[in-house]
Amino acid sequence: MDGKVFLGGGGPHHGVPQGLTLKYANRHGLIAGATGTGKTVTLQILAEGFSGAGVPVFLSDVKGDLSGLARPGSTAHKLHDAFMNRAATIGFHDYAYRASPVTFWDLFGEQGHPIRTTVSEMGPLLLSRLLELSEAQEGILNIAFRLADEQGLPLLDLKDLQALLLWVGENRAELSLRYGNISTASIGAIQRRLLVLENQGGTRLFGEPALELADLMRCGEDGRGMVNILASDQLMRAPGLYATFLLWLLSELFEDLPEVGDPEKPRLVFFFDEAHLLFEDAPKALVDKVEQVARLIRSKGVGVYFVTQSPADVPEDILGQLGNRVQHALRAFTARDRRNLKQAAETYRENPEFETEEAIREVGVGEAVTSMLEKKGIPGIVQRTLIRPPSSQLGPITSEEREAVLASSGLAGKYDETVDRRSAYEILAKRAEEAAAAAERAEAQEDEENAAKREYSSARRYSGTRVRRSSSRYRRDPDTFGSAISEAVIKELKGTTGRRIVRGILGGLFKGR
């Protein structure tokens, strides 16, 4: 099908062949259906189709099955005959086994190239979502980011943020006058949430070298788009980290890519599997952000496809923007299930040949109810569709095969080693060291001055000369600007031990900087 990604169709009781028009692929889509109805295979064949059309793809591999995209299917597979029969039934005459060009990624750096961002790039809104902060705690995080900008403190990894929060706590009295109340309890709560994130392995997400978006938008030597697969089986144990990372990636694409209008094919297609995790208990500000990105990112040439069990998992304002639909079977065992089924059916353009609600309930594994955008972006009439078989391997590849793909990747070595350059943590530590050294010098000078004073007083007493007292414990006329500054520092530090100075040194790190 020229200019389309072939989905399937044909056969008894099914409509005309269905294809996703590349020109409208950046107008987003939805893949929905109950567990075990074929969503993963649909995602796999869409990735194959987009790659074959020269469109890079980014998707998450929640169950490990999608790694099979890197290997061609096999005639020895138990479903080989079924695949061939399905291809013949739907008129897929040029069906053949073929692998796709694949790049593996992994936030933990175990099953793919490490993928990182910096704390600054994540920003306070998404970081607050990741840490599940309250409104008051999010406000303090915003203050910390504002101070980092004002003081020129790069926030790259978690220890940078932890050091900055410590400084905010030391200076809370002064900062509260400018930004509002800053409580030590809220700062402590943020630090504890950062500790939880560390225990979940979140420290590996933050740092450098950070991901370059261009590395997600490559094509292979044969012109096919790269299929970027994020290993998410371990990541799903921390669903907040999973959802926040993918939302960050979507936001970065939105902010960095130039406007291209309506291209003949997308520049990138982004699949968000287990999409319900993005919206569960999400604050309104975050949902509004997702809606804004979904509405505007299509002009950047990026198509976003949400993969979830029910259309009800996606807020209505966002659901209305998903023009390309593949709906696998929904079960209706409970009253809520029946409401969701009815809602899903109502979002399609009716076909007079069958009842949409009934069709969604009855389609089997490997079948779906589909509606693709047609000319001028108008939704097509809903059709019952036999989904085409995949050309790549169904199921995961072996560890050895994965290692071979990683070794031959054009990105091998680029992201493997973490770089820890000078940032907020190092800058604050240096300032603390310098301030501590200055405090020690000041205390030593004070001790010398006091010793000289005592020696002078003792000498005058033994000589019989009366020592004239003044209202000041000790005074001498500064003869230079430097000595005047020294006397001012001594007066400020007098009566304070070196240990107390060092303990409070974070309270004055930024003064004079």
Structure report:
This protein is an alpha/beta fold and 513 residues long. It contains 17 helices and twelve strands. A ten-stranded mixed sheet has the order 6-5-7-4-8-9-3-10-11-12, sandwiched between helices. Strands 1-2 form a two-stranded antiparallel sheet. Helix 3 (119-131) packs antiparallel against helix 8 (239-256) and helix 5 (158-170) runs antiparallel to helix 7 (184-199). The radius of gyration is 32 Å and the shape is elongated. Residues 469-513 have low confidence and may be disordered.
Largest sheet: 10 strands, mixed
Counting H and I runs of at least 4 residues, what is the number of helices? Answer: 17
How many beta-strand elements? 12
Helix/strand structural class: alpha/beta
Question: Notable features of this structure?
Answer:
513 residues, alpha/beta, ten-stranded mixed beta sheet, two-stranded antiparallel sheet, 17 helices, 12 strands, elongated, disordered C terminus
TL;DR?
This protein has 513 residues and is of the alpha/beta class. The chain has helices at residues 39-52, 80-89, 119-131, 135-151, 158-170, 172-179, 184-199, 239-256, 276-279, 284-296, 316-319, 335-346, 356-362, 399-407, 424-462, 481-493, 498-503; strands at 4-8, 18-21, 29-32, 57-61, 102-106, 113-114, 227-231, 268-273, 302-308, 324-327, 367-371, 383-386. The strands form two sheets. Strands 6-5-7-4-8-9-3-10-11-12 form a ten-stranded mixed sheet, sandwiched between helices. The protein has a two-stranded antiparallel sheet with strand order 1-2.
Structural topology:
Elements lengths: L3 E5 L9 E4 L7 E4 L6 H14 L4 E5 L18 H10 L12 E5 L6 E2 L4 H13 L3 H17 L6 H13 L1 H8 L4 H16 L27 E5 L7 H18 L11 E6 L2 H4 L4 H13 L5 E7 L7 H4 L4 E4 L7 H12 L9 H7 L4 E5 L11 E4 L12 H9 L16 H39 L18 H13 L4 H6 L10
Parallel strand pairs: 3-9, 3-10, 4-7, 4-8, 5-6, 5-7, 8-9
Antiparallel strand pairs: 1-2, 10-11, 11-12
Helix pairs in contact: 3-4, 3-8, 4-7, 5-7, 5-15, 12-13, 15-16
